[in-house]
Amino acid sequence: MVEFKLVISDREKSIARTVGDPQSAGFLGKRIGESVGGELLGAGGYTFRISGGTDKSGFPMRPDLPGARQTRLYVGDGFGFHAPRRGMRRRRTFRGNTISEETVQINLDVDQKGPKPLAELFAAA
Fold it and tell me: How many CA atoms lie within 13 A of 122 on its CB side?
């Protein structure tokens, strides 16, 4: 089915982990900003918040773009484009804020910590 690369960010460090078919079904249809229970990843007691991601072509997910579609937006300095000159704008391709089969990487932030440290939970993974 679908395989995702998860990048879990904590204050101390970031951990990358790949999840396969049974676990990936819990992420499909979720949006940026939603919370996910740590039980999906084998980290009981933890709560993670989806903060972004990229699709199979490498285009970033944008939180204010609804759905899972890919579209081109005319953007100024900020998210997805850093203008070399003041007032400069460009057309850039973005993916919507919903996780779909085209999503490859999902960025997660720790909302609530569990009893064990993340490094200990994902050391053998």
Answer: 19
